[in-house]
């Protein structure tokens, strides 16, 4: 994790409210778990960015360190790590995800 | 190797055979002159192909003596088709009486592949079938001798019908084979003669046949014989055409589970009967039992160590030489760190086969993990998941585990859910 990489990630996260670090892209998810997150976010019709970590190995390893989370996908809301697929799905089912997203959109 | 055999000798034999057999003479297909015009590389390959096909045909048996040469002619046509498309149009007619070339080449290609893979693996399998229990050896030989996939399949179904049903009380999660599309249970038992016998049950006829094959092949063997079995024999059975990758994976897991349970049972029976009072024998953590004790090396382990490695590359060998799977390691670590009231670890790698970054047929890369533990009390989902990830840090970073689907609950949540 170089300082440049960290800075770049910091910057990206402050510029974009909802970011999903995933395998593949929004249009072409390459993993079942990543796809689940994409579908959930699509259903909530919230604008979000995706980052394909398969494209860049240093980013892939970097994100694991940055988030202290060993797997993908990784969902960030308002610059904060929200969770992986399981957490996102459960939060969606409980309504918590919608709440958090709405709060983020308003701020 | 036959590559050194000169092309002229090969063609000479073709000529002699053609006068003997009543099949259409292959010699009119290629005149010796035209073949000789081909670059040396082709000659070597032609020679090799002929050698394979004749060796293979000879080893399978049941063919007329003209067959090897018949196949040899096909070798020529395949070589030509494959490499020298331009020349075909100018060479003499490749048509044989009554059959279209396409169909024949296709058939011979599959025959070739079946034959050549049969012959090359049979040389390997001769070496390692000696390591297999007698009964399994016989079964493998029988399958090798029956080349037709349809017949192999029918033989499997035959086994399925013969399989004695397993008592319902044994259809437990502990006995269930992981990573199999259908449900398969296996139950080992050991008799006074220290030999192991198996029973199995399955809800699908095909997997029943596969399980029955293993039951037949492994029952009556000693623990060492069973543990010495390497999965290569599965190749020798030649069932690849009848089994999808997930079925083959399931078959492999059946074998693994049988071996794992044999080891467990063996250790338990030795523990009760042996005089090794000063050592504690480690038992692999099964999904619901929670008393796994750490143990030191015993004479048993040293004995088992000397036999060839049992599991293939996906499992890890602990330093004591006792074979463990990633699943077992995960279970152990979680048991220790979280003292769960409920723990379930399931290998679902087969669901992710073909996934980017996961090789086909890989196992132990994706797991479903359900943990119910007091330690989750008062912690957010995120914190709970982080906790689990921390415990399994090594597996995730370097152990080849790609993903964990986590269900993390507290005992209170589980009982509350149960009441609704």
TrEMBL record, chain A:
<protein>
    <recommendedName>
        <fullName>Glutaredoxin</fullName>
    </recommendedName>
</protein>
<feature type="domain" description="Glutaredoxin">
    <location>
        <begin position="18"/>
        <end position="81"/>
    </location>
</feature>
<comment type="similarity">
    <text>Belongs to the glutaredoxin family. Monothiol subfamily.</text>
</comment>
<dbReference type="InterPro" id="IPR014434">
    <property type="entry name" value="Monothiol_GRX"/>
</dbReference>
<keyword id="KW-0001">2Fe-2S</keyword>
<keyword id="KW-0676">Redox-active center</keyword>
<keyword id="KW-0479">Metal-binding</keyword>
<comment type="similarity">
    <text>Belongs to the glutaredoxin family. CGFS subfamily.</text>
</comment>
<dbReference type="InterPro" id="IPR036249">
    <property type="entry name" value="Thioredoxin-like_sf"/>
</dbReference>
<dbReference type="InterPro" id="IPR033658">
    <property type="entry name" value="GRX_PICOT-like"/>
</dbReference>
<dbReference type="InterPro" id="IPR004480">
    <property type="entry name" value="Monothiol_GRX-rel"/>
</dbReference>
<keyword id="KW-0408">Iron</keyword>
<dbReference type="InterPro" id="IPR002109">
    <property type="entry name" value="Glutaredoxin"/>
</dbReference>
<keyword id="KW-0411">Iron-sulfur</keyword>
<dbReference type="Pfam" id="PF00462">
    <property type="entry name" value="Glutaredoxin"/>
</dbReference>
Automatic annotation (TrEMBL), chain B:
<dbReference type="InterPro" id="IPR002634">
    <property type="entry name" value="BolA"/>
</dbReference>
<protein>
    <recommendedName>
        <fullName>Fe-S metabolism associated domain-containing protein</fullName>
    </recommendedName>
</protein>
<dbReference type="InterPro" id="IPR036065">
    <property type="entry name" value="BolA-like_sf"/>
</dbReference>
<dbReference type="Pfam" id="PF02657">
    <property type="entry name" value="SufE"/>
</dbReference>
<dbReference type="Pfam" id="PF01722">
    <property type="entry name" value="BolA"/>
</dbReference>
<feature type="domain" description="Fe-S metabolism associated">
    <location>
        <begin position="141"/>
        <end position="260"/>
    </location>
</feature>
<dbReference type="InterPro" id="IPR003808">
    <property type="entry name" value="Fe-S_metab-assoc_dom"/>
</dbReference>
